[in-house]
Input
Amino acid sequence: MKAAEQRVPLTDLYQGDHWAKAQALVPLASKAGFTPELWVASAGLGLRPVTDTAPAYAATFSPRHADSVAASPDDSARWWHCLQTDDSTRSLASLSQRGHMLLILSEAYANVMASDLGNLARGANETLLIGGAQSHQGITRVPSDATLRHALGGTLTSLNVRMAAAWLEHCSNARLTSPETRTAWNTWTAQVSKRETYNRLPLTDEAVIEFIRTNHAQHPGHSRTRMLRELRSQGLACEQKRFAHLYAVTVEKQ
Output
């Protein structure tokens, strides 16, 4: 008999800096005058409150990732639709009827959820989208802004959630997108925005291959994209196409 899969609360299922910052939004929202509920948009589970439980899983809509659930944006959108058809009460449109909504989405996830965002925009209460892929009339969107990373800290991976935290700190009178809140945000960003320049050290092919071998031995589950990001975070340089070729001859052809 197959053992039952262990289910754990979603608050304990996810890991990493992005998730830690996402959970920290709850007290920030409370301080701003809201009564927050935290939900996740998951490639494995659909739209779920963090009070739900689930077994461990590996799934993402991020392209060119080892755990990507589909090979194309259209297939990813169909996957998301299938996840969501099981429970129509767990939709962005239905959640928006309960109050203000703050959405934090990467470009990849926003593209997958484009239909849901369109439905939300047609009947949403006050809604703010941080990141995303495009604007929707009826939803206030603040695009991801790399010039804020210097002020917010962290990596570009967690930039959107850090921007959301900063936005909540500028909220006025429990209004997510009030003119006062927008003015405070615009004033702050004008003061702290800083375009970053990178002076990374170029590497020979042999040095890149050695880095890939070492990283793969220590972290065999790391994707090529994550490995390149880690290399660059150490102040080292390698063009993406060149890194992909060296990764292929080092790891994929073993």
